[in-house]
Amino acid sequence: MTGPAALSLAYRLSAGAGHVRKLLPRRWTEGAPTGGQLAALGDDPLFRDTAWSKRILASQFRCEILRRFAETASLRDLDAFCERKVVYETGFDFARLRQLGRPLILATPHYGAYVMACMVALGDFGDRPVNIFYEDPARNPANAQFEAIFRRRPNANVLLNGRRGVIAAIKALRNNECLTMMPDVYLDVDDTIAVPFFGRLMRAMTGTAFFALHADALVAPVYVLPDDRFGIRIRISEPLDPRACRAGDEAQKLFRITRDLFADMERTFRRAPEHWVYWRSFGSLSSESRRAAPDAGLRGELQQRLRVVPFLARRVPALVSSMDDLADRVRQPARGRPGGAIPASGLCSPATTG
């Protein structure tokens, strides 16, 4: 049975899933990391005390039940859910965001019941279109589930990543419409930058920041947490405004907006980390942010940067083949920059991050 009553019952029974993990089929648990796997991710305090790992399975089960509800419930039941089972935890809700009078990007990471964020927004925006942007299922088969769910609402406009989708997204934003995006996923490392995230350097797409800059759009981070009684809590952070990025070129502005978005994600995840779906793959999505050892010299610093941003080695092979020669060159004074030294504060110096 997949009716609302059966799903509600299954939802409540899922609370203790983490405590009976060993009794569950492996295919049910393989996406949820254990405390030991989380502890191996680094020195951040979040990974030193991983008691929260027992809550991951319950969150995943509950979010899957909510996804099935969004897929199978009647629109009448969906409307009733949105009216009675949705609680906003901050001073922002979708109605207030609409009143800001600016193009709007809802940044919905894969955290909690993120599908429900779009469904609630579709309902709250009424007849106004909500443009839902994600990777083409031909490239990412996991996205095939989304279109059938979102198109249940007549004001949903699905846009797939690609030249046509990007152009359509910019046009929609310049028409003062709403766009939703998932900022915490990528397919090709060459399309990413690295930003600080839980003591590591996380690979991140700059698409959200790109749309914000080119359409003067606010970026509102949206998080949807499943509650204990078949409902959701929506947490909307203070929107990021691209107008705050006054200095620097476009690359620097893209970095700053992306960095600030991931900083907001980190603050939210720390409060309830069990709801992010990518903890198991976090190690492969990020790199340790420790700098090269003090005695490694500039050559070691360059090697560290190539490890953090690997596509540089493919695009500029000379960085690898002539590493020693390059290190000697950057020791020489450079015009316009006393000493010619490479900035030592991660990927960008304070001057380049705005």
Structure write-up:
The chain is α/β, with parallel strands linked by helices. 42% of the residues lie in helices and 14% in strands. The protein is built from 17 helices and ten strands. A seven-stranded mixed β-sheet has the order 1-9-8-2-5-3-4, sandwiched between helices. The longest helix has 22 residues, at 250-271. The protein is globular and about 50 Å long. It starts with a helix and ends in a 23-residue tail after the last helix. Residues 291-295 and 333-354 have low confidence and may be disordered.
Q: Gist?
A:
This protein has 354 residues and is of the alpha/beta class. Helices cover 42% and strands 14% of the residues. The protein has helices spanning 4-13, 26-29, 35-39, 45-48, 56-72, 75-84, 94-98, 114-124, 144-150, 163-174, 207-215, 250-271, 282-285, 297-308, 311-315, 318-321, 323-331; strands at residues 86-88, 104-107, 130-134, 156-160, 178-181, 192-197, 200-205, 218-226, 232-236, 286-288.
Task: State the main characteristics.
354 residues, alpha/beta, seven-stranded mixed β-sheet, three-stranded antiparallel β-sheet, 17 helices, 10 strands, globular, disordered C terminus
Topology:
Blueprint: H1 4-13, H2 26-29, H3 35-39, H4 45-48, H5 56-72, H6 75-84, E1 86-88, H7 94-98, E2 104-107, H8 114-124, E3 130-134, H9 144-150, E4 156-160, H10 163-174, E5 178-181, E6 192-197, E7 200-205, H11 207-215, E8 218-226, E9 232-236, H12 250-271, H13 282-285, E10 286-288, H14 297-308, H15 311-315, H16 318-321, H17 323-331
> How does the major sheet shape up?
7 strands, mixed
* Run of helices and strands: HHHHHHEHEHEHEHEEEHEEHHEHHHH
Based on helices, strands and strand pairing, what is the structural class? alpha/beta
Name the average pLDDT. 82
